[in-house]
């Protein structure tokens, strides 16, 4: 099969392109599947995470062929192909796959990639809130995706643009699958994402014993304050928060699971503190 | 006798982020509360903390114990400002979650029936 797009960027069309690659692979017979990447001239490095999630295929071995040299170079720096090239600029956030029980491994990954070395230009408060956000995202995927394929992470720092992208993808039941199960009613995938990303909604029930729903709200507040963006593709839905503005709609092709990309303005020098001060004596 | 629970020791790392670790902490706190023993919960050395962890560790307590029991017996030690703010949000949410679940579910469903 052949990839029929020349660019895969972190946007609606990029997620749709990856979804189409998944569909094409699924239609191939079991065995080795050669993916002709000859036409692909650019892919945002953070999109390795959803690409990896999309090309995992039981009973098929995927081989990426005719790679553009520039893409291959990045993928040998960030670990997507291998780690044979050194990241001399310190701009890659490594690609890694995690098992759903891989919380400790993910913590070690965050420690390696997001402590000083990769992000020298972020203030301490910004870095702390960013780390909290990606831990919340990982836990969300662990709790809700029901994936058997693991969770895929990758990021990229763009120093000249003062941007950091970090992507987490899973091959789970999708947000709409999870929300539909909970609300027991049909809805568009983009509305389900909006429901999950809005305020304090949660698919947890009291019988589950553990409250939920706060994590995505905290991420949303942080990204809005930062002026960054969150992009979510899940099944046939796409949702984007830019600053405080939300756009949502159908995704032209269905992503097999959920991918969330967080874009952070690394030049943001605001002092980050969750709103308000609390007297410990009044918490309970 | 006061039960001392140090998050760093229970979790074994400075990352208080997973629900699974939160549940381990919850089980220790709940065991002490069932015996009506006070708990000193130390946040010393914790670098990362999430709502997922706190929901499991502390929010979950509100499903079994009333506010008064928790308020009387659980004392927070060495928690930083942003950790306290997050915990307050988790606790407020847990109280809401466990006190009025039917109304909460109905309100959520209503959002898509408009």
**Uncertain residue ranges of chain B:** 110-114
Mean pLDDT over all positions of chain A:
88
Largest sheet of chain B: 3 strands, parallel
Order of adjacent strands in the largest pleated sheet of chain A: 5-6-7-9-8
Write the element-wise H/E pattern of chain B from the N-terminal end onward. EHEHEEHHEHH
- Which percent band covers the strand fraction of chain B? 5-15%
- What oligomeric arrangement do these chains adopt? heterodimer
H/E series of chain A: EHEEHEHEHHEEHHHEE
Biggest β-sheet: strands ordered side by side in the sheet of chain B: 1-3-5
Low-confidence stretches of chain A: none
Query: What is the strand content of chain A?
Result: 25-35%
Mean pLDDT of chain B: 89
What's the shape of chain B? globular
Number of strands of chain A: 9
Key attributes of the depicted protein:
heterodimer, A: 284 residues, alpha/beta, five-stranded antiparallel β-sheet, two-stranded parallel ribbon, 8 helices, 26% strand, globular, B: 114 residues, three-stranded parallel β-sheet, two-stranded parallel sheet, 6 helices, disordered C terminus
Give a brief outline of the structure.
The complex is a heterodimer of chains A (284) and B (114). Chain A is α/β, with parallel strands linked by helices. Chain A is built from 8 helices and 9 strands.
Write the layout of secondary structure elements.
The complex is a heterodimer of chains A (284) and B (114).
Chain A lengths: L6 E2 L3 H15 L4 E6 L5 E2 L4 H8 L4 E6 L3 H9 L14 E7 L4 H11 L10 H21 L6 E8 L4 E8 L3 H10 L5 H9 L16 H13 L2 E14 L2 E21 L19
Parallel strand pairs in A: 1-3, 2-4
Antiparallel strand pairs in A: 5-6, 6-7, 7-9, 8-9
Helix pairs in contact in A: 1-2, 4-5, 5-8, 6-7
Chain B lengths: L2 E4 H5 L3 E2 L2 H16 L4 E4 L5 E2 L1 H7 L9 H7 E4 L3 H19 L1 H10 L4
Parallel strand pairs in B: 1-3, 2-4, 3-5
Helix pairs in contact in B: 2-3
